Amino acid sequence: MLSCALLSKAAAPSIVHIHDRMPVVLKPEHFDAWLDPNTPGPAVQEIIADSRDDFDSYPLWHYRFDYLTLQLLCESVLLYLELLISGVLLQISIKLLLS
């Protein structure tokens, strides 16, 4: 079974004007500990606390939102998320294969 979970945390100051939450994006040096089922809870909490928060926000466009615009925006975001998740899963798969 293939599954995925998205964890969120309080938003970084650079994007809090968009939303009060943001995804937890792990730093590469934490991948191994994150995937290790023996990593203790306090260490997992430290990994989450040390996750990336160096994000910027940019307006997508300044046009009136109509149905087509909203549909295109949703499709773009979904495609981006699919590519992002595929890349992360590929990195994890390679790490698991090499270990």
From TrEMBL:
Q: Name one GO molecular function term.
A: single-stranded DNA binding
From the broadest rank down, the organism's phylogenetic lineage runs: Bacteria, Pseudomonadati, Thermodesulfobacteriota, Desulfovibrionia, Desulfovibrionales
Superkingdom of this protein's organism: Bacteria
Query: Biological process GO annotation list?
Result: protein-DNA covalent cross-linking repair
What name goes with this protein? SOS response associated peptidase (SRAP)
Q: Which InterPro entries match?
A: SRAP (IPR003738), SRAP-like (IPR036590)
- Pfam families membership: SRAP
